[in-house]
Substrate-binding domain-containing protein
Amino acid sequence: MSNRKWSFGLIALVLIFGYVLIRFFDSTTKVDDLVQRMEHDKTSASPAKHIVLIAQELDNPFWREMEQGADQAADKLGMKIDYMGPIRIDPSEQMRLLEKSIAAKPDAILVQGIGNPEYDQLIGKAVDQGIPVLTVDADEPGSRRLAYVGTDNRKAGEQLGELVVKNEARNGQIGVIIGSEADNQRLRLEGFRSVISAAPGFQIIDVRSSNISRIGAAEQAEAMLKQHPDISTIVGFSALDAAGIVEGVTAAGQEDVSVYGFDDLEVTRKGISEGDIKASVVQQPGEIGAKAVYLLDQWFKGEKLSTPYFIPTNIMDGEHMQAGGSNR
């Protein structure tokens, strides 16, 4: 009897052990299967899109804000932004960086147009290698770029001209500081001229370049006023110009010169709040960077793009500062 009980006990133990062993192997098989599926999903998932953004000038506040907007959009879309640019404005360095970027084979490139036939060829080279190129801030319309994203620069120039004509009731002679010879600056000057030339009593006396430099703007404004002391208004077309113009006006000993600028740097806001700068046409570089990245996402998904994509500008003056913003 005791042997029979022992036999039944042994059989039960073997059955239990067998059941446990089967469950163990079944569980192990399922885990292995799950790991294999996860590894397959990981290797088969599309890698993050790699986008290069080439600035006109690496640490220029306008371009840093555009980088920030592009980064934020890229994070939401699972993309990666590599930001680069010349230490100081240098079109030839922009071209070299574009050539190096093409060799690195990113998924897309964002660049500023510089109006150069060789640059057009480089953009074409990128396109031939399957790398879409979008222009930002300034267009390169003769190239094979996919689209332009940025300010309607001619319209922005008109906007500044209308502001000057409206505010400067005494009329007068005007000096202009452009940032550079880039296409965006040329278009702003064209738009500004079109308004001023049609306004009785207003005349553009002198046009000079700051080379995208606050010091350059100060030096050119001072020299301009010494040569043309009757100038009553000076406008600047790049972000650092207005602050530099104020310094140049002070150095020239001219306290009754009205100053207008572009963009809303902290120094420009301070100048407006203190009455040294009358107003500024405000671009939205962060929106430009973000919009360019979202457009690339659409293109990667097979959607067609049209061009141009204009990001609106607004006016920042004393009234809007008191209202707590820049009319954005």
Q: What stands out?
A: The first helix runs from residue 2 to 44.
